[in-house]
Amino acid sequence: xxxxxxxxxxxxxxxxxxxxxxxxxxxxxxxxxxxxxxxxxxxxxxxxxxxxxxxxxxxxxxxxxxxxxxxxxxxxxxxxxxxxxxxxxxxxxxxxxxxxxxxxxxxxxxxxxxxxxxxxxxxxxxxxxxxxxxxxxxxxxxxxxxxxxxxxxxxxxxxxxxxxxxxxxxxxxxxxxxxxxxxxxxxxxxxxxxxxxxxxxxxxxxxxxxxxxxxxxxxxxxxxxxxxxxxxxxxxxxxxxxxxxxxxxxxxxxxxxxxxxxxxxxxxxxxxxxxxxxxxxxxxxxxxxxxxxxxxxxxxxxxxxxxxxxxxxxxxxxxxxxxxxxxxxxxxxxxxxxxxxxxxxxxxxxxxxxxxxxxxxxxxxxxxxxxxxxxxxxxxxxxxxxxxxxxxxxxx
Length: 396
Description:
The protein is an alpha/beta fold. The chain has helices spanning 31-35, 113-124, 162-180, 201-210, 275-281, 293-303, 330-346, 349-362, 368-380, 382-394, and strands at 54-59, 80-83, 101-107, 130-135, 151-156, 186-191, 194-196, 214-223, 231-233, 236-238, 244-246, 261-263, 270-274, 307-318.
């Protein structure tokens, strides 16, 4: 949900989040992973004797502007990838071991110093020995090794938003795992503007191993450059108008934030997913494109009895705002529209009324056109969202 860390936040901070849903038709449970089949299994792929038990997806902030250097065909099939898997990078062993982890990185802007720092921290940690980079920008000729250490493959897809890129990355992981005959158990999502601690992964895996009702576990996110360290996110909470913000944001880290806790919504900036959870929900709803897609995913998961947790024994440092793209007024449009969408889809009448009233008041402020478009688009989607809400309720 939040742009920098996820895409949900309405708090006034630099709009650096992951992407939200794409512009294409939403694929229902299980569909994204089959729908995005890729035409590159004829390349030399050596996964060794076993596929990765875990896959890391590190999301670089997406940009809504710029030319698409690589496109998919009408069937959503990938038209270009580069790289290969070496046997020593494949990953074998238990989910708790570094040898059992593979990585996936999403980028729109290709190689950057920020992305390299993220990849270097993963390579130093108990994380993946290999990484797939999903690039939905104009970087078809960039060599694989230029992205950063440990990159085993570069997968280029059309820019349909962060959620679509994540779903494509998960699909590719599934295809590689199918070749080896075993699917990964967990998939981790990271923003490209985070750096993980050496031991960040094991506590998250331990939580998922111990409680099969958990669909996702997020680490404690700390703000980069703060001394003493300050909290970036311990999960997501909402105000009376449905606007999301980070739990604990700006608070000095300490013993009060050292205990694992259940949370209603995780932040997409850093989170370890159970693969079964993603299969059950069908991944991110790509219509959001940017902002609040993590909120939507978590709340849909809650409707299907999945739970979520924050595990502060795992820490990730977030360089807030570093991954923000030059999105201009589209940031305001997407953030406002998607807040209305999630409010109508999941909240009660009182919160919906407050949300619409807040949007109506914002129309008086710049950028007026973006706010007006967002309000109109939010209201226009109400019949669809209410129908989805009824179907979800009928299925429980």
